[in-house]
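Justification of computing resources. Each target in the renewal requires a structure prediction run like the one illustrated here; the chain below, 197 residues long, is used simply to show the kind of job we budget for.
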Amino acid sequence: MTPGRERLLVVLGAVAAGAVAVLASTRTFATAVVTGVQAPVVVSGAQATPALAPLGIVALALALALTIAGRVARIVLGVLLVVLGAGIVAVVLPSVLDDATGTRGAISAVTGVTDVGSLVTSRSGTAWPEVGAVAGVLAALLGLVVVLRGRWWSTGGRRYRSDQPAPASTDPIAEWDALTRGTDPTSPDGRRPEPDR
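Resulting structure tokens:
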């Protein structure tokens, strides 16, 4: 695989990880039936883990920054992507391990009671916490790829940089002689341009 293709795949993967984390934050993490409340309490990812959406947005920004980053900046962004992926997993993991973790705050907001354990008659979770955790793991793995392989990727926008060597200068006397002979020194094939009619 060429370095350019590898870079493209990593950037697209990081974009996907960030987008999935943001998407998971908008979905239902758990539903609880609570005594004294007629409708079931539905807990979204943003309620269960408020930090999930911001972390996903930062992952998207890091992915876009990778498209223009230089060699040293790529290493820094790779480390940040690893830390960010671990952060996504850390904020989602409590909801993965126990549905009650994310529902307590939402049930307390509905009932006004802080100790909600005795009020919940049933609780069911969804797969969205696991999806968010997978997004975090993917972001962390892609960050490792950036740290280990990013130094071989090309840097975007190199042709517009001022540190590129200037084109070799030509001999003005040879150019003048070419004009005297009737040829165009600026033309690739040296032909005289046709006059306008």
